[in-house]
């Protein structure tokens, strides 16, 4: 029996060529993701079950002991509470202010491009520069903020980053100021996708600006709002640089967040196994919060 040589049809050849071109564009991103994200995450998962101090000594398998140690660590529990507190202080104010700014920046006013750029500018400024400048503004004795508070009659203003009570609110204020411009742009894109005829019809029916915002704009921006909510939540749980620059996790451990705790465990105490276990716990928490938010979005959308 003779072997019949199968010949690809021209249509199949075009399809394979098209797929090859597509994969050639995607491959660099996939390689970068695999090298810098996927492989480190897998290694961190393995390392969370090991005991290792980054020396030449071999890794020692300890099972779930690192997780038991982490949950029994008071600093870890405090760091988790501080992270949740920071998130509550940051997420909702950033979301509301970004939405209001987007509504304002969606108006046809003179010089609107300049104002949009001005509000977005803090997002692209170096975190180190932002932290240093705001630390000077928050300086308890001679800082402009406390001088203004004294001027309006507050004789004993907060000591901000030097106070265990006010350090976290100070970091949250800076975070809201820095990120509101970025999420303003996202909301602005959502606003420009809303049909103007809906607002015109509501105006004809006698609805004022607040009613149009409440009953038309906000409901139609539900997908954008949930996207912003998810991104803000993940960002708050990942916060490190701003806290490190402004307070270093202090005073005491008043502003130590989960990522600061992981950094200290890994590169100060050199307990990489425990640091990896803490990172896995943070990953699970963020994943759970994200899934809950997705479930809430579907429920909200079904009721609309």
Tell me what you see in this structure:
The structure is a single chain. The chain is mostly helical. It is 72% helix and 1% strand. It has 13 helices and two strands, in the order αββαααααααααααα. It has helices spanning 10-47, 65-71, 74-105, 112-124, 127-137, 144-151, 167-191, 196-204, 209-220, 222-237, 241-246, 258-267, 272-303, and strands at residues 50-51, 60-61. It has a two-stranded antiparallel sheet with strand order 1-2. A hairpin with an 8-residue loop joins β1 and β2 (60-61). α4 packs across α7 (167-191) and α12 (258-267) runs antiparallel to α13. The longest helix is centred in the first third of the chain and has 38 residues, at 10-47. The chain is flat, with a radius of gyration of 25 Å. The N and C termini lie far apart (67 Å). Mean pLDDT is 87; it is low at 1-5.
How is the topology of this model organized?
Layout: H1 10-47, E1 50-51, E2 60-61, H2 65-71, H3 74-105, H4 112-124, H5 127-137, H6 144-151, H7 167-191, H8 196-204, H9 209-220, H10 222-237, H11 241-246, H12 258-267, H13 272-303
Antiparallel strand pairs: 1-2
Main β-sheet: number of strands, strand sense, barrel status?
Answer: 2 strands, antiparallel
Strand tally is 2
What shape does the CA trace take? flat
Structural class: mainly alpha
As a percent range, the share of helical residues equals over 70%
Quaternary structure of the protein: single chain
Q: Could you give the distance between the termini?
A: 67 Å
Global mean pLDDT? 87
Strand content: under 5%
User: Which stretches of 5+ consecutive residues score pLDDT under 50?
Assistant: 1-5
Rg to the nearest angstrom? Answer: 25 Å
Order of helices and strands: HEEHHHHHHHHHHHH
Placed side by side, the strands forming the largest sheet appear as 1-2
Count helical runs. 13
């Amino acid at each position: 029996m003779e072997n019949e040589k199968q010949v690809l049809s021209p249509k199949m050849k075009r399809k394979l060529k098209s797929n090859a071109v597509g994969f050639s564009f995607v491959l660099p991103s996939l390689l970068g993701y695999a090298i810098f994200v996927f492989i480190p995450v897998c290694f961190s998962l393995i390392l969370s079950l090991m005991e290792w101090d980054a020396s030449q000594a071999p890794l020692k398998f300890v099972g779930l002991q690192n997780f038991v140690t982490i949950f029994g660590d008071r600093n870890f529990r405090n760091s988790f509470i501080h992270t949740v507190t920071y998130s509550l202080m940051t997420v909702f104010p950033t979301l509301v202010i970004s939405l209001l700014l987007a509504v304002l920046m969606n108006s046809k006013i003179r010089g609107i491009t300049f104002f949009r750029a001005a509000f977005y500018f803090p997002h692209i400024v170096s975190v180190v520069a932002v932290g240093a400048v705001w630390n000077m503004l928050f300086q308890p004795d001679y800082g402009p903020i406390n001088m203004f508070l004294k001027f309006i009659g507050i004789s004993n203003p907060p000591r901000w980053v030097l106070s265990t009570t006010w350090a976290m609110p100070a970091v949250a204020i800076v975070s809201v100021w820095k990120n509101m411009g970025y999420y303003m742009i996202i909301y602005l894109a959502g606003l420009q996708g809303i049909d103007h005829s809906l607002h015109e019809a509501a105006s004809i029916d006698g609805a004022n600006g607040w009613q149009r915002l409440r009953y038309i704009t906000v409901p139609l921006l539900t997908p954008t709002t949930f996207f912003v909510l998810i991104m803000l939540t993940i960002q708050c749980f990942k916060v490190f640089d701003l806290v490190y620059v402004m307070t270093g996790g202090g005073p005491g451990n008043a502003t130590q967040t989960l990522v600061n705790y992981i950094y200290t465990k890994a590169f100060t105490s050199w307990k990489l196994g425990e640091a990896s276990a803490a990172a896995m716990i943070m990953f699970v928490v963020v994943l759970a919060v994200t899934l809950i938010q997705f479930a809430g979005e579907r429920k909200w959308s079904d009721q609309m």
